[in-house]
Amino acid sequence: MKFLKAVLIVFFLLSVPQLSLAEHAPSPVNELDDIADQALQLTKAGKYEEAKQLLNYFSEEFTAQSMHQSFSMDELRILTISHNLALETINQASAGIEQKVNAVTRFRLVMDALSSHYQPLWVEMEDPIMEAFKGVKTAAESGNSKQYHMELNMFLAKYNIIQPSIKLDIPVEQAQALDARISYLDHYRHQVLESTEAMAELSTLQTDLEHLFENKKEDEADPSLWWVIISTGSIIVSTLSYVGWRKYRGQGEARTSERQKN
């Protein structure tokens, strides 16, 4: 019975951090992030008018809450550009669904990078981007010019989606170096298949991209989450140790009483 009571106490203590977190209302930044996410979902569903209304609502809320005061000039510039591009693309009748989705996704990832300090959504683009780059490198190594240009265009389109978010999450020097390598491949794309130096740039860029995702995935856990885990573990160990000690003490007292009776 005592053991059951101890277990119930442990479960109660485990629920306290969750209840505490639930009591906190979402911050204005998180609310804006939710609006951006809803706009993206509507765009994917082909509901462009509703998505347009949400993008306009985002702008109104952003201004009303004076959220621009919470961001640096660079952050504000990147957010404004990505928002304007998303709204402009949504309004273009000639733009296809992929263009619209890519533009709103780009904006969504920027807002996420500004609102979350851990596990940014752009990191989840690792597989499609690395797969696209693999196609570029394979086409270049085989000397297939037509395939190379097609694969490079696909890679650039995918990288363009996460580029603004990357600038918000990594050091300026690293972002500039990465952009410089990608711009070099795009600008001198006709010479890549004929130049050993340009081919070496492909290998260097691959290494840079791998480091980009690997470094960002390191230490993604929120320190507060580790505190909860450590605290919870300590509570469990302490409780079980106490229960075990009480049980051992009770058994010892029972044996002593039995010997006294004999």
Secondary structure topology:
Layout: H1 2-23, H2 28-44, H3 48-64, H4 73-91, H5 97-115, H6 126-142, H7 145-169, H8 172-187, H9 189-192, H10 196-217, H11 223-261
Helix pairs in contact: 1-11, 2-3, 2-5, 3-4, 4-5, 5-7, 6-7, 6-10, 7-8, 8-10
Model description:
Residues 1-22 form the signal peptide. Keywords: Membrane, Signal, Transmembrane, Transmembrane helix. The chain crosses the membrane at residues 225-245. Helices cover 83% and strands 0% of the residues. It has helices at 2-23, 28-44, 48-64, 73-91, 97-115, 126-142, 145-169, 172-187, 189-192, 196-217, 223-261. Residues 3-24 and 221-237 have low confidence and may be disordered. The two termini are 29 Å apart. With 262 residues, the chain is mainly alpha-helical. It has 2 domains: 27-116, no CATH class; 123-224, no CATH class.
**Termini gap:** 29 Å
SSE order, one letter for each helix or strand? HHHHHHHHHHH
Number of discrete helical segments: 11
Q: Name the poorly predicted regions.
A: 3-24, 221-237
- Estimated radius of gyration: 28 Å
Can you give the helix content as a percent range? over 70%
Q: Report the count of strand segments.
A: 0
Outline: globular
Biggest sheet descriptor: none
Tally of discrete structural domains: 2
Proportion of strand residues: under 5%
Summarize the structure.
This protein is mostly helical. The protein has 11 helices and no strands. The radius of gyration is 28 Å and the shape is globular.
Keywords:
transmembrane helix; Sporulation protein YpjB; signal; membrane; mainly alpha; 262 residues
